[in-house]
Amino acid sequence: xxxxxxxKSREAxxxxxxxxxxxxxLDTIECGVQLVGSEVKAVREGNASLAxxxxxxxxxxxxxxxxxxxxxxxxxxxxxxxxLTRTRRLLAKRREIDKLARQVDQKGLTLxxxxxxxxxGFVKVLVGLAEGRRNYDKRQAIKERETKRExxxxxxxxx
Length: 159
What we know:
Layout: E1 14-15, H1 17-22, E2 23-33, H2 37-44, E3 48-49, E4 54-58, E5 63-67, E6 70-71, E7 88-91, H3 94-107, E8 110-119, E9 122-132, H4 135-158
Antiparallel strand pairs: 1-8, 2-7, 2-9, 3-6, 4-5, 5-7, 8-9
Protein backbone atom coordinates (compact mmCIF):
# COMPACT_ATOMS: atom_id res chain seq x y z
CA UNK A 1 0.00 0.00 0.00
CA UNK A 2 1.32 3.45 -0.92
CA UNK A 3 2.18 5.91 1.81
CA UNK A 4 -0.20 8.87 2.22
CA UNK A 5 -2.98 7.16 0.28
CA UNK A 6 -5.93 8.41 2.30
CA UNK A 7 -9.62 8.07 1.59
CA LYS A 8 -10.39 11.50 0.13
CA SER A 9 -14.15 10.91 -0.14
CA ARG A 10 -14.71 11.20 3.61
CA GLU A 11 -12.86 14.49 3.98
CA ALA A 12 -15.44 17.20 3.50
CA UNK A 13 -15.08 20.57 1.85
CA UNK A 14 -17.32 23.21 3.39
CA UNK A 15 -18.28 26.03 0.99
CA UNK A 16 -19.63 29.50 1.70
CA UNK A 17 -21.76 29.90 -1.42
CA UNK A 18 -23.55 32.94 -0.02
CA UNK A 19 -20.29 34.92 0.15
CA UNK A 20 -19.79 34.70 -3.62
CA UNK A 21 -23.32 36.08 -4.07
CA UNK A 22 -23.09 38.91 -1.53
CA UNK A 23 -19.50 39.99 -2.28
CA UNK A 24 -17.13 40.54 -5.16
CA UNK A 25 -13.99 38.58 -4.29
CA LEU A 26 -10.85 40.57 -5.12
CA ASP A 27 -8.11 38.35 -3.67
CA THR A 28 -7.80 35.12 -1.69
CA ILE A 29 -5.38 33.75 0.88
CA GLU A 30 -5.05 30.26 2.35
CA CYS A 31 -4.77 30.14 6.14
CA GLY A 32 -4.43 27.41 8.71
CA VAL A 33 -6.89 27.26 11.59
CA GLN A 34 -6.11 26.68 15.26
CA LEU A 35 -8.68 24.05 16.29
CA VAL A 36 -9.16 21.56 19.11
CA GLY A 37 -9.46 17.81 18.45
CA SER A 38 -13.24 17.49 18.49
CA GLU A 39 -13.52 20.44 16.07
CA VAL A 40 -11.21 18.76 13.56
CA LYS A 41 -13.25 15.57 13.70
CA ALA A 42 -16.53 17.50 13.27
CA VAL A 43 -15.11 19.31 10.22
CA ARG A 44 -13.94 15.98 8.80
CA GLU A 45 -17.57 14.81 9.03
CA GLY A 46 -18.68 17.98 7.21
CA ASN A 47 -20.45 19.35 10.28
CA ALA A 48 -19.61 23.06 9.90
CA SER A 49 -21.15 26.23 8.50
CA LEU A 50 -19.28 29.27 7.16
CA ALA A 51 -22.40 31.22 6.14
CA UNK A 52 -22.43 33.73 9.02
CA UNK A 53 -18.65 33.83 9.44
CA UNK A 54 -16.26 36.71 8.97
CA UNK A 55 -12.57 37.41 9.60
CA UNK A 56 -11.10 40.35 11.49
CA UNK A 57 -7.57 41.70 11.82
CA UNK A 58 -6.81 42.95 15.34
CA UNK A 59 -4.00 43.27 17.84
CA UNK A 60 -0.63 44.99 18.14
CA UNK A 61 1.13 42.32 16.23
CA UNK A 62 -1.90 41.87 13.95
CA UNK A 63 -3.70 38.52 14.09
CA UNK A 64 -6.43 37.08 11.90
CA UNK A 65 -9.45 35.87 13.87
CA UNK A 66 -12.35 33.80 12.54
CA UNK A 67 -15.74 34.77 14.03
CA UNK A 68 -19.23 33.20 13.98
CA UNK A 69 -18.24 30.00 12.20
CA UNK A 70 -20.39 27.22 13.56
CA UNK A 71 -18.56 23.89 13.91
CA UNK A 72 -21.10 21.34 15.12
CA UNK A 73 -20.70 18.83 17.90
CA UNK A 74 -18.72 15.64 17.52
CA UNK A 75 -20.88 13.13 19.39
CA UNK A 76 -18.14 10.71 20.60
CA UNK A 77 -16.28 13.61 22.30
CA UNK A 78 -18.72 13.46 25.23
CA UNK A 79 -17.68 15.80 28.04
CA UNK A 80 -14.65 17.08 26.08
CA UNK A 81 -16.94 18.89 23.62
CA UNK A 82 -15.92 22.25 22.12
CA UNK A 83 -17.94 25.47 22.02
CA LEU A 84 -19.86 25.68 18.76
CA THR A 85 -19.23 29.32 17.76
CA ARG A 86 -16.07 30.35 19.55
CA THR A 87 -13.50 32.64 17.95
CA ARG A 88 -10.68 30.80 16.22
CA ARG A 89 -7.22 32.05 15.37
CA LEU A 90 -6.13 31.87 11.73
CA LEU A 91 -2.51 31.12 10.91
CA ALA A 92 -0.80 33.05 8.12
CA LYS A 93 2.54 34.71 7.46
CA ARG A 94 3.10 38.13 9.02
CA ARG A 95 3.63 39.78 5.63
CA GLU A 96 0.27 38.48 4.34
CA ILE A 97 -1.53 39.59 7.50
CA ASP A 98 -0.01 43.09 7.26
CA LYS A 99 -1.01 43.36 3.60
CA LEU A 100 -4.60 42.34 4.38
CA ALA A 101 -4.77 44.73 7.34
CA ARG A 102 -3.69 47.66 5.15
CA GLN A 103 -6.23 46.83 2.45
CA VAL A 104 -9.10 46.39 4.90
CA ASP A 105 -8.30 49.71 6.65
CA GLN A 106 -7.70 51.83 3.55
CA LYS A 107 -10.29 50.58 1.10
CA GLY A 108 -13.06 49.53 3.47
CA LEU A 109 -13.00 45.93 2.29
CA THR A 110 -14.13 42.85 4.21
CA LEU A 111 -12.52 39.49 4.89
CA UNK A 112 -14.87 36.51 4.47
CA UNK A 113 -14.21 32.77 4.78
CA UNK A 114 -14.95 31.13 1.42
CA UNK A 115 -14.03 27.50 1.91
CA UNK A 116 -12.84 25.12 4.66
CA UNK A 117 -10.99 22.00 3.56
CA UNK A 118 -8.23 19.55 4.41
CA UNK A 119 -4.76 19.81 2.91
CA UNK A 120 -2.12 17.27 3.93
CA GLY A 121 -4.13 16.41 7.05
CA PHE A 122 -4.51 20.02 8.23
CA VAL A 123 -7.67 22.14 8.17
CA LYS A 124 -7.28 25.16 5.90
CA VAL A 125 -9.57 28.12 5.31
CA LEU A 126 -9.62 30.07 2.07
CA VAL A 127 -10.18 33.70 3.09
CA GLY A 128 -11.34 36.19 0.49
CA LEU A 129 -10.71 39.93 0.42
CA ALA A 130 -14.16 41.08 -0.61
CA GLU A 131 -16.10 44.17 -1.58
CA GLY A 132 -19.82 44.24 -0.77
CA ARG A 133 -22.28 44.12 -3.66
CA ARG A 134 -25.37 46.24 -3.94
CA ASN A 135 -28.71 44.69 -4.87
CA TYR A 136 -28.49 45.80 -8.49
CA ASP A 137 -25.00 44.27 -8.74
CA LYS A 138 -26.39 40.97 -7.45
CA ARG A 139 -29.20 41.05 -10.01
CA GLN A 140 -26.71 41.80 -12.77
CA ALA A 141 -24.52 38.86 -11.71
CA ILE A 142 -27.53 36.52 -11.73
CA LYS A 143 -28.53 37.77 -15.18
CA GLU A 144 -25.02 37.16 -16.55
CA ARG A 145 -24.92 33.67 -15.06
CA GLU A 146 -28.30 32.77 -16.60
CA THR A 147 -27.22 34.08 -20.00
CA LYS A 148 -24.04 32.03 -19.80
CA ARG A 149 -26.03 28.87 -18.94
CA GLU A 150 -28.41 29.41 -21.84
CA UNK A 151 -25.48 29.88 -24.20
CA UNK A 152 -23.90 26.64 -22.94
CA UNK A 153 -27.19 24.76 -23.46
CA UNK A 154 -27.52 26.07 -27.00
CA UNK A 155 -23.92 25.11 -27.79
CA UNK A 156 -24.38 21.57 -26.40
CA UNK A 157 -27.58 21.03 -28.45
CA UNK A 158 -25.80 21.98 -31.67
CA UNK A 159 -23.04 19.39 -31.19
